[in-house]
What we know:
By secondary structure, the protein is of the alpha/beta class. The protein is built from 16 helices and 14 strands. Among the domains are: 41-148, no CATH class; 336-514, no CATH class.
Amino acid sequence: MQVPKFVIMLGNRRNLIFRVSIVFNIAVFLYAAMHYSGNSASGVEWVPITSDGSERSAEIRYLKEEFRNESETRPAESSVRNLEESTSQKSIPSTMPSVNKTASSTVSDIDKKVSAVPSEANLINETLDIVDENALSETTLARLRSLLACNDKDFLPTTTQRGEFWVLKNFVRAEHGTVLCHESITYTTHAGFEYFDNVIPLVERWMAPVSLAVHAPGDDLASTVNSIRYLRDCAGNDFVRQYVTFHVFFSYKHIPAKIPNPDEFLQTPFNCTNKAPYFNATPSYKKQKNLLYPVNVARNIARDAALTHFILPSDIELYPSPDLVPKFLNMIARNAKPLNTSTKPRVFPISIFEVDAQVLAPWTKTELQRMLANKTAIPFHKYVCPNCHNIPQGNQWMTTVETNQMDVFHVGKRQGKYLHWEPIFIGTHQDPYYDERLSWEGKKDKMTQGFVLCVKDYDFMILNNAFLIHKPGIKRYVKDSKRDLIAAKQSSYVKKIIHPELKKLYGTKHGCAL
Ligand SMILES: *[C@@H]1O[C@H](CO)[C@@H](O)[C@H](O)[C@H]1NC(C)=O
Ligand SMILES: *[C@@H]1O[C@H](CO)[C@@H](O)[C@H](O)[C@H]1NC(C)=O
Ligand SMILES: *[C@@H]1O[C@H](CO)[C@@H](O)[C@H](O)[C@H]1NC(C)=O
Ligand SMILES: *[C@@H]1O[C@H](CO)[C@@H](O)[C@H](O)[C@H]1NC(C)=O
Ligand SMILES: *[C@@H]1O[C@H](CO)[C@@H](O)[C@H](O)[C@H]1NC(C)=O
Ligand SMILES: *[C@@H]1O[C@H](CO)[C@@H](O)[C@H](O)[C@H]1NC(C)=O
């Protein structure tokens, strides 16, 4: 299929632009460093700024834009961004959200969630009057821009190294065009191609950028490329093409024989009469070589590539509740209690559930509650590791009725009874990274991050209506002695090596454990 025109033209100018943008980024960084060096706000992820930013409101749109004056938002790159006209479309004001499981609707009627509310007024003192919680008005976007004061990022393919891994960042890019850092949330995730059956249900519910890091050693890269092409060309809708950006990575010890060039393979449409290359697939190379899955390398790659301020680092089998992105951003823009009174760094955990293999994932909290009542849904890992996902006030959450707007349901801590809580949450790029020495097979791969969050006294602001549903099928504990052996080794490594390191780096706090 066609590569958008601006991508091709970008190629020639990439070097120059890249250099210019580095200079620009350094300048922004220095400015930020000077600006905040006197601020002791203990890593709080945003600094409310009272006046600046409002003049941009007229141009900003949600994902797709009618017109955007790039010389204002991205001074160093104005020459490039004007090439984006191919993605511009006339926006339809206040399109109702399409909440449709069949996904028969097309991108064009979903991504125009823009209400025409022009405003040049002082945005900070004014109460935000949100008409549609499932849409982002210009006022909301302008408010977000000034509240978050985030930096927009480049969206270019790059080859980098991360320890022993080669990383082809932005290997196949989504066609959403420019995404400014305040105007969406990126679902950041990772997988081998054999998990790609989750991509379509995930993106149909998320309807916003997805940053997917794919472990593709040796011959698994060829299967990965075919799977990407299948998802983009054969899904029956444009969502993958529109929203999902694929990064691939592999160890230098397992470099593929040939590295296909996306500019070439994306030119030819995939033959959709073949079955999905990921369907019932086993990663032959990974299996044959008995490789461990470098889960945290993958998580960090996906997160680093996200263009937005807010990210939802998650597992690819966890499908979000619909309209989470606009509802969450409207909540942030509203900036009511406890958001405007909190002083600690914070993340926003989302409640997780499993559903029976025979049922469809619920679309609303109300539907989820009915399923909990008849036991077709249960809290996540109830039968595998109940304490891992036992969330503060979990039972109250389940019995509280759904409301129209998103709010913070409860502010919890990862302490006491919730010492080993492994929450999935919306956070930002300032949250601690995942330790890249840990493998998926070794288990508890997120615990070191959890420990740092606890020591840094993060607030866990649990969201009221948002939830994640695991791919249908309820998990039971299955003994795997080979994995248990790896887990025992990893656990001892964490205790002996990583824990002392973290104590040196971050200190300790009463009630926090690893
Ligand atoms: C974009 O904004 C700049 C700076 O405000 C202005 O000089 C320029 O004329 C604008 N361009 C368009 C096409 O409106
Ligand atoms: C959902 O899709 C079905 C079948 O295409 C259609 O009849 C129905 O009106 C749609 N519902 C909404 C809310 O768009
Ligand atoms: C906005 O609120 C601040 C603090 O309450 C006040 O100093 C400022 O004058 C207000 N601005 C406007 C335009 O009302
Ligand atoms: C697609 O694959 C099918 C089955 O393998 C084959 O019969 C068909 O000719 C192929 N179509 C094209 C356009 O190559
Ligand atoms: C926080 O927001 C609430 C509701 O919008 C408002 O009543 C309260 O005054 C705000 N508090 C501060 C400290 O700004
Ligand atoms: C459970 O409740 C859901 C939602 O109301 C419904 O769709 C499903 O058919 C019910 N299943 C059983 C076994 O009662």
